[in-house]
Specification:
Blueprint lengths: L7 H7 L10 E5 L14 E4 L3 E9 L4 E9 L4 E10 L2 E7 L6 H4 L8 E2 L9 E2 L5 E4 L12 E4 L14 E4 L4 E5 L16 E4 L2 E5 L2 E6 L9 E2 L8 E18 L4 E13 L2 E11 L3
Length: 283
């Protein structure tokens, strides 16, 4: 993760980044959603024309970072954050690159360099009604989450948390699965997913989402429901109505400074967790 990451918890911890991260406390909670004060701000936009911007790639062997240009196609739904607002009008946004599919980001890939898997942001992008329209969060994405899911029930330690396979439900409508491999890239993931498919239909029923696509996604227990057409495979993503929290220890302050909220989902019969909230304990 590079310094472009901008979530609240990372900003809080930046002032004490030399601190030792002790093992965190994880415990079950009865909540089925994060408290309102901890919910992450979410903004979604749809591009009206191709948008050229840059994202970061890392070379952990050479200790090098580069900015690489990509083009976000017309009609793409992106997760973004307003970063400049004047007279209640958005002037600039940045897009959460880690919520975009590999199909959009692959132009940035170069030998020895890796796309960032977590909380990576694009460069600043000029906003206008001619370039973007505001849209609702896509139905295929689950509440409060940015689409990053990790195998298991909770991470071991923050920020070195993501030591398991990663499932992405991207803002632009892909299901992607990345296999975790220690020592691969800066975060344990290769650039290209082991399995990927474009979502062609979503059905929401109660606490579940049914995602349909043309072909099997390697590594997932999706079900074949048709022999031909756009809706051959179906993946069930069911909310387990279970929130766990992880409390972050600051060795410099000798205190717990923040709380992270994780929701749990049954994805094809396997449990994954996803971050759904952050809250400083000073609030």
């Amino acid at each position: 993760m590079n310094l472009k990451s901008s979530r609240l918890i990372l900003m809080l911890l930046a002032t004490a980044f030399t601190m030792a991260m002790f093992p965190t406390q994880t415990y079950a909670k009865k909540e089925v959603s994060p408290p309102k004060s901890a919910q992450l701000s979410e903004y979604y936009f749809k591009t009206k024309k191709p948008i050229r911007t840059w994202i970061g790639v890392d070379n952990p062997t050479a200790h090098m970072f580069q900015s690489r240009w990509i083009t976000i196609p017309k009609g793409t739904v992106v997760s973004g954050h307003p970063i400049e607002v004047k007279n209640k009008q958005i002037k600039k946004i940045t897009v959460v690159a880690s919520s975009l599919s590999y199909q959009v980001k692959k132009a940035a890939v170069m030998p020895g360099y890796y796309l960032e898997a977590w909380q990576d942001l694009t460069g600043d992008i000029k906003y206008s009604n001619a370039r973007f329209e505001k849209v609702k969060k896509p139905q295929y994405m689950v509440p409060y989450s940015d689409g990053n899911f990790y195998l298991g029930t909770s991470p071991k330690e923050y920020p070195d948390t993501f030591l398991s396979d990663r499932l992405m439900i991207t803002s632009d409508g892909y299901v992607e699965l990345y296999h975790y491999q220690a020592g691969v890239g800066p975060e344990g993931f290769g650039n290209k997913p082991m399995g990927s498919a474009k979502i062609t239909k979503t059905i929401a029923k109660k606490n579940s989402r049914y995602l349909y696509y043309r072909h099997h996604v390697t590594g997932l227990d999706d079900k074949r429901v048709h022999k031909t057409g756009k809706y051959q495979y179906r993946l069930k993503v069911a909310d387990k109505d279970d929130i766990k929290t992880q409390t972050i220890w600051d060795d410099g302050q000798q205190s717990f400074v923040a709380r992270i909220y994780y929701a749990h989902y049954d994805v094809g019969g396997v449990t994954y967790y996803t971050e759904v909230g952050e809250k400083p304990l000073s609030d």
